[in-house]
Amino acid sequence: MDCPKCSGEMELVYYSRIEVDRCKDCGGLWFQPEELRRLRDDVWMADYVIDTGDKSVGKKANAIKDYHCPICGDSMLHENDKHQKHITYESCPNGHGTYLDSGELTDLVKKTFWDKFKRQR
DSSP character for 53? Predict the structure, then answer.
């Protein structure tokens, strides 16, 4: 599978029996349905092991708005996290998966008091 954002090669990374696709170029992460939810519930070291990309590269990649699901080819939907509105991620409209730019998983699992005051991107 190629990265939906930069078309780089994806590699498989594992954490606690969860398999995630990570882009070798931009560090973006592709989660199959339920993988992201399971990682959010068990955050100990998941972000450190899986989200190894450069956060500044992720911020630049987040500006890319027109790209497609690597499984079905449909345009990805842009969504804000329910609990941390400043985090925007992309998901397949047909439920094939969710894509997070590098740095977003770390931000997602490490909630702070100040996250309540961060503005939506």
Answer: S
Tell me which amino acid residue 13 is. Answer: V
pLDDT digits (tens, 9 = 90+) for 7-56: 999 999 988 888 899 999 999 999 998 888 887 766 666 777 788 888 88
DSSP of 78-108, one letter per residue?
EEE-SS-TT-EEEE-TTSS-EEE-TTHHHHH
> Structure pTM?
0.83
Summarize the confidence of residues 66-80 as an average pLDDT. Answer: 92
Number of helices followed by number of strands (H, E) in the chain: 4, 6
Amino acid letter, residue 107: D
Q: Looking at 1-121, which runs of residues are DSSP E strands? A: 10-15, 18-23, 29-31, 77-80, 88-91, 98-100
CA distance between the termini of the chain:
28
